[in-house]
Amino acid sequence: MCGVDEAGRGPLAGPVFAAAVILDPAKPIEGLKDSKLLSASRREELAALILKNSTSYAIAYASVEEIDCLNILQATLLAMRRAVHALGMRPDEAWIDGQHCPDLPCLARAIVRGDRLHPVISAASILAKTARDAEMRRLHARFPQYGFDRHKGYPTPTHLALLERHGPSESHRRSFAPVRRLLEPR
Question: With a cut of 50, which residues of the chain have pLDDT below it?
Answer without folding.
Answer: none
